[in-house]
TrEMBL record:
Organism: Cecembia lonarensis (strain CCUG 58316 / KCTC 22772 / LW9)
Protein name as it appears in the record: Gluconolactonase
PANTHER family: REGUCALCIN
Lineage, top ranks: Bacteria, Pseudomonadati, Bacteroidota, Cytophagia, Cytophagales
Active site (UniProt): D195
GO molecular function: calcium ion binding; gluconolactonase activity
Domain of life: Bacteria
Length: 289
């Protein structure tokens, strides 16, 4: 397997890859620039939108809407009219912003927060349900990042990046409750820091390693590294399965924390890549609101 450049997005902090099957498109964001990208697989013409706030995640909403996280709030964005409707304020903590997020099989949005200055333990992990009720599940989080559910919806895997761990939580789909089960994976500092992730049909986790120049495939039942797909950039931020057969992995990367000499050495930093895998993922869950 190899990573192939899909689009020269040159994101400062590319994140949030999402496959929108109805539109046959990959979406992703550039957090710090407030920019949303759409790459239609059948057209190849990239659509972009610019927002005044930092944008940290994108998931499918109802009808022609996307659900976005902007700074500390959640909004509904109409792709046809480009109307932005605020629907929830997750936090009101000076210096914090939201980060990675996904929907579970009930359509609840799970999203974490972090300090913009990376203060230890300043963030938390929340869900937002169909009634727009906010529930906090974890606190003392530093950089809330990747999450993935097993196909039976009984386990949630979750990353707080500086811990260098992937934790497994018992998950109750009906109530949304989580309970710590175990530390599933310990990632050596030498391999970079775990960032975004997704899960394949074999139950293996594909994790973007920030500072680790690749996507790493891990077995969460044994904690063992299975394989690495190298990228020509140091800071790999997230990944998501998509494409017609759900066997194409979209990978986001970042230019942040690289000096001019490093950017000359790694000019593709901030671009998005695709990896044609030997396995498949699942259709992402859309929002219930």
């Amino acid at each position: 397997m190899e990573a192939v450049q899909l689009y020269a997005s040159q994101c400062f902090l590319g994140e949030g890859p999402y496959w929108h099957a109805i539109r046959n498109s990959f979406f992703w964001v550039d957090i710090e620039s407030g920019k949303l990208f759409e790459y239609p697989m059948d057209k190849g013409k990239v659509n972009t939108w610019k927002f005044e706030q930092r944008i940290t995640l994108v998931v499918e909403g109802k009808a022609d809407h996307l659900i976005l996280a902007l700074d500390q709030k959640i909004a509904r964005f109409n792709l046809k009219t480009e109307n932005l409707e605020w629907i929830a304020s997750i936090e009101d903590i000076p210096g914090n912003r939201l980060n990675d997020g996904k929907c579970d099989a009930k359509g609840r949005l799970w999203v974490g927060s972090m300090s913009k200055s990376f203060d230890k333990g300043a963030g938390a992990f929340y869900s937002l349900d169909a009634d727009l009720k906010i529930q906090k599940y974890l606190d003392q989080i530093t950089i809330s990042n990747g999450m993935a559910w097993t196909h039976d919806n009984k386990t949630l895997y979750y990353i707080d990046s500086p811990t260098q761990k992937v934790n497994a939580y018992h998950f109750d789909l009906e109530s949304g409750n989580i309970q710590f089960d175990r530390n599933a994976i310990d990632i050596p500092n030498s391999l970079g820091t775990p960032d975004g992730m997704c899960i394949d049909v074999e139950g293996k986790l594909w994790i973007a390693h920030y500072g680790g120049s690749g996507i790493y495939r891990w077995d969460p039942l044994t904690g063992k590294l299975m394989e690495k797909v190298s990228l020509p950039v140091p800071h790999v931020t997230s990944c998501a399965f998509g494409g017609e057969n759900l066997d194409t992995l979209l990978v986001t990367t970042a230019r942040e924390n690289l000096n001019e000499a490093q950017l000359r050495k790694f000019p593709f930093s901030g671009d998005v890549f695709v990896i044609q895998t030997k396995t498949k993922g699942y259709l992402p869950n859309a929002s219930c609101f």
